[in-house]
Design a protein that fits this description.
- By secondary structure, this protein is mainly alpha-helical.
- It contains 8 helices and 2 strands, in the order H-H-H-H-H-E-E-H-H-H.
- The protein has a two-stranded antiparallel sheet.
- Strand 1 and strand 2 form a beta hairpin.
Length: 189
């Protein structure tokens, strides 16, 4: 090292013309371009929502084997739709819980304060300089009691349960397209 404190936000990129999203300063490993590219790939791969929820395409599977085939193929076909359902459930959970919003604010504030202290001088704990990962851990430790009080653990399990229920039900009961049926012909065991 050259003695200069590395700023994890220094190499962050701004997206031109992206409004508020373009003004976000993100750590080195998670740039706005990476997030935008990932989101664009998901949007391009998304199947039309009318096709996704077409009630005529739902039926009870004849047996467990057919249900497994449907789940596997539908998870592959509607992966992007399922991703947006998952993100929507996360957003709903965060917005509907003011305490969780406060907990996230405390975490972001703790990380920002620790980051500012690091810019002034190196943070050394027990003779070791704090890396960005250590800083995130320290911010998490500081905000853990607030997350505990906000019921973040219950929120995580609610999101997982709701996601599995919604996506699992859709994947199991959504009929396969005729082209998909030809691909999945398997010999009975």
């Amino acid at each position: 090292m050259d003695g200069k404190v590395s700023d994890p936000f220094s190499e962050a990129e701004q997206l031109p013309g992206a409004g508020i999203m373009g003004k976000l300063w993100l750590p080195r490993g998670l740039s706005a371009n990476v997030m935008k590219d990932w989101l664009d790939r998901r949007r391009k791969a998304i199947r039309p929502w009318a096709t996704f929820v077409d009630q005529r395409k739902f039926s009870k599977p004849r047996n467990f084997g057919e249900m497994c085939q449907r789940v596997v193929k539908n998870m592959d076909t509607f992966y992007s739709n399922y991703t947006f359902i998952f993100l929507g459930l996360i957003l709903y959970c965060i917005i509907s819980s003011p305490m969780l919003l406060i907990a996230l604010g405390v975490f972001a504030g703790a990380f920002y304060i620790i980051h500012l202290k690091t810019l002034e001088k190196k943070l050394v704990v027990f003779g070791r300089e704090l890396t960005q990962g250590h800083q995130l851990g320290l911010a998490g430790g500081v905000s853990f009691p607030v997350f505990w009080l906000a019921g973040a653990g219950a929120a995580v399990f609610w999101i997982l349960g709701a996601t599995i229920a919604v996506i699992g039900t859709h994947a199991a009961f959504r009929e396969l397209e005729s082209s998909d049926l030809e691909e999945l012909l398997m010999e009975p065991v």
